[in-house]
Amino acid sequence: MKTKKLLNNISTTICLHETKRDKYVSGAYGDSISIWEEKQVTRILQLLIRHPHLHLIDIGANIGTYTMYAASLGRFVLAIDCFAPNIIRLRRSIQLMNLFNQVVLIQNAIFNHSGQSLRLSIDTRNIGGQRIHLLNNYSYKYNLSTKNPYIVKAITFNEVLPILNAYGIRSALMKIDIEGSEHFVMEKGNQVFDTLDIPFVQMEWTIVKQYINRVKLILDFFNKRNYDPMTDLCQILNQNEYSQWPDDIYWLKRNTPNFC
């Protein structure tokens, strides 16, 4: 479907799941009058317009709301999603909008070990809500040859750096929404953050905040690199109260102008 215009003139095309199987993301689209996470997408577009040198890294792209709007604005997008039915729809949206040169799709889960086969949880009414099914001993021996979309192959985030380098990407915004696995981006993503200028990271906080070890890894990573956690109103969050933070938070690199 053709989407709602944001900021007066930016629209795109999105290929949806059946809403009975995807009540949140696909269900958010209503006859070009609403989209998924409109407020957050609009914020990303405003920042891209304000900072023309920035591109987008979309981790947990789902059916591609952020990816398609940013690409339609003319920016390069590295879109990562491990679920084949999402990638199929996103690829078709790219074809319909003729944005082949704007988007690179990666169909893998972000994890702390490359090459592992991981199993996703199944939610028959919320396709976007799959999570990596983590075993305590990290022993994964699932068979990828079954073509089961709920068995996915893992990479580390550092492995995407050669792709970004090949496309000449030096600066990017980042959106991370991978259902409680956000910490894996930081655990094996230091090379990307230390090579690129990433001034702003939008991160879903709903699930990951329930796991103190994951929270500590994320806080340590961003504190070491001089980021502050913010609300959508640019209020600095108290790191001792992480369990009370909102569902979406924003990591902003200190001394970065024109973001708040």
From TrEMBL:
It holds the Pfam family Methyltransf_21. SUPFAM superfamilies: S-adenosyl-L-methionine-dependent methyltransferases. It comes from the Eukaryota. Residues 58-227 form the Methyltransferase FkbM domain. InterPro entries: FkbM_mtfrase, SAM-dependent_MTase, SAM-dependent_MTases_sf. This is Methyltransferase FkbM domain-containing protein.
